[in-house]
Amino acid sequence: MNAITRVTNAVARRMDVMFPGFFAQVKHNHYADFGYPTDLNFKQLYDMYMRNGIAHAGVEKTILKTWQDMPFLLEKERDGSEGKDTKETKLEKDIRTRFSDLRLWQHLAEADRRSLVGGYSGVILRLADSKTFQEPVDTVPGGPLGLVELIPAWEGQLQVSEWDTDERSENYGHPKMFQFSESSVDPSQKVQRQFQLHPDRVIIWSKDGTVHNRSLLEPGYNDLMTLEKISGAGGEGFWKNAKSSPVLQIDKEARLEDMAKAMGVPLDEIADRMDEQVGDWQKGFDKLLMLQGMEAKTLGITLPSPEHFFAIALQSFAASVPIPLKILVGSQSGERASTEDADEWAQTNMSRRNNQVIPNTMELINRLERFRILPEQDWHIDWTDLTESSMAEKIERAVKMADTNQKMKDGGELVFTPEEIRATVDMEPLSDEEKYRDDPTEEDSTAATTPPLPGKPAPKKETL
Questions:
Q1: Share of the chain above pLDDT 90, in %
Q2: Does 302 have pLDDT greater than 60?
Q3: Is the pLDDT of residue 25 over 80?
Q4: Extended strands (E) in 33-143
Q5: Is 32 exposed, middle or buried (0-12, 13-18, 19+ CB in 10 A)?
Q6: In this predicted structure, what is the pLDDT of residue 425?
Q7: Where is this region: Disordered (predicted)?
Q8: Whose CA is closest to 58, among 275, 264, 306, 227?
Q9: Are 205 and 120 in contact (CB under 8 A)?
Q10: Residue 120's CB: how many other CB atoms inside 10 A?
């Protein structure tokens, strides 16, 4: 080490003392200390989703709530003024039937699930246009029958193979060609499809419709690893306690020659013989351990209760999704998720549906319009509201409204109209015929219930 190097090191040490924590590498590298990966790839995220129950629940709970029911595609938005007898049009029926045959909504839900594990997923469109996957799409004949199949793809299966680098192109900076390789994620499938894919034939499913996104599991990945360490260490500690080898302590008055003679082995093989005997004893509960003047002890390990350590990491992961803890793991000690948790979870998924799922679905509808599979319309996705009250809650609200009207009756004020009360329970207003139908008079009731006298015909009702 020359003089300049020694002076430089001395100055660096002095600066570290004067300004502790200011320079890089002065503190521990926590990722290295705790065993967390610095960078994450799709395989790590996919393996965590497939092998970790909490990670799997975080993804599945989100998808099951978002896709609690399936939507309908309508030619236009309906505000309810059409009346309760409004029927679907022939085009809507044809589309509904075709989408049902293709299991379109289920495939979109699967693509949505895969986009949470990776940064994005893909919906590959098989079209009846007699072209290969790497060719662009013009128009597709046959209407809704022109859509043959939808293939959900993981991020690991669908990679950008070529980017558009022409600054004069309207697609500058976007993928120019994709590479689809089915075996990249699931090599166990019997049919392994692999081909080049034109962007016209794939819908990128992600938060913003691009491939530049993050996985849902990434913010809480360290917490998931912590959960695995805690549960794994607890299980390993329990196993070692249950299967620990005994420690043999020889009595000071014991004679090794007599022990070897009793075991039928030479003196220099007594240790190996005891190892075999202990091994046989550990293999079952009905084995006999001959000690021959020795005392067997076990090295017990006192394991700390893992619940508190587990709960910290579990709460941190739930916050990263975000999902209420009791909804993520279910009922704990008889406690159920509160109404506030359920309402917040419904609002979270409703926001996700409006800001991510519906825009991605409309991108598919617009693509089908461009291919002439669907006619150009003001298409509307009709989907039930996740935040909507249950029927029991609606009836209870209607009863309270009617009670309020009854209490305000003496003041001559009607707080809620009958139409508003019926709307509370999702019922259409009464028509004029239903509202003002004739009530039976006392004479009509008497005539209907009084039998005619014998030999005398029943009186005829006068007609005007």
A1: 50
A2: yes
A3: no
A4: 72-74, 121-127
A5: exposed
A6: 84
A7: 420-464
A8: 227
A9: yes
A10: 23
